[in-house]
Amino acid sequence: MNFGRDIQDSVVRAVTSLFAHGPVPLEDTLNYTGDPGLLGPDSVSWRILGDSSVFVGGIRALVVQSAHPEVAAGVEDHSTYREDPLGRLSRTAVYVTETTYGAIPEVEAAVAVVRKAHRPITGTSERDCPYSANRPEMAAWVHNVLTNSFLSAYQAFGPHPLSTDDADRFVTEQSKVGALLGAAPLPSTAKELQAWIVNHPAAAVSRAQTNAIEFLRDPPLAIPVRVGYRLLFNAAVTTIPEPLQRQLGLAESRWADKVGRSSIGAMRWALGASPSWQLALTRCNRPIPPGIFRQPLPTKDAQHD
């Protein structure tokens, strides 16, 4: 019996079950042979979003996004995150996967789905400010925080920190996605992006923020999964700049960064790099780097088993 393999397989099952509550990403991607997509196989984005640190980045993004009262109100008033948290998580993961690794038709379809979903998200926040999810400035907050969160998580918990040039390349690459959503402004460097978020004039405490943070601290997950989630949540908090931590009512737990590195390292060992990255490389007829992919290459039949 191979206990190491059994542990790896159990981690894969636990993680993939969290993302099995929505549409299947890249289901037909091999029909677009040779299409490099929006970002391409030589992009920094494929490397960052193929790493297990993406799980910390995703949690961090949801936390920091709630710091904008109008964005938080849109989620509070229109989202099903309380009734269907795993469905929302799966749909977000599909969007990120398809805009990153998809062929151009898949990128365009993913963006169209989001823009359609955002159309009815309008209202007024508790500070009596109107909001619309399709407004460039609101789309920019959501998109820029997502980009900053994936980058921050990778820099803290990835296998090797990026150089300044590569970090800036990632921000520039992701701005292509933001532009398709009509987001503006879109900072062009990692330093500018961080400053734009930390110093954003719209950020403020709100009831919607408080509700979102309470939910994100302790979502309704099965107990074994909840334990692992809490480690990732605590790790995510360590990457949030102190001014935003104070606004969000968060404080770093002792050893959270070290525990986070160990947890992400264990996930990287068990999961390997994202199979969506491998699938996209296959579509582009690119060689598969040895030793970084562990899960089998997704196929349409396997995805529906």
Written overview of the protein:
It is a single chain. This protein has one domain (3-304). The protein has helices at 3-18, 44-49, 54-65, 69-78, 85-101, 104-118, 136-157, 164-180, 190-198, 207-217, 223-238, 242-248, 256-271, 275-283, 300-304, and strands at residues 122-124, 130-132. With 305 residues, it is mainly α. It starts with a helix and ends with a helix. Strands 1-2 form a two-stranded antiparallel ribbon.
Number of helices: 15
Strand line-up in the sheet with most strands: 1-2
List unreliable stretches of 5+ residues: none
| General form | globular
User: In this structure, how is the largest beta sheet organized?
Assistant: 2 strands, antiparallel
Distance between the termini: 25 Å
Supply the number of structural domains: 1
In percent, how helical is the residue content? 55-70%
Structural class: mainly alpha
Give the H and E element order.
HHHHHHEEHHHHHHHHH
Radius of gyration: 19 Å
Number of strands: 2
Strand content: under 5%
Q: What is the assembly state of the chains in this entry?
A: single chain
Q: Round the mean pLDDT to the nearest integer and report it.
A: 89
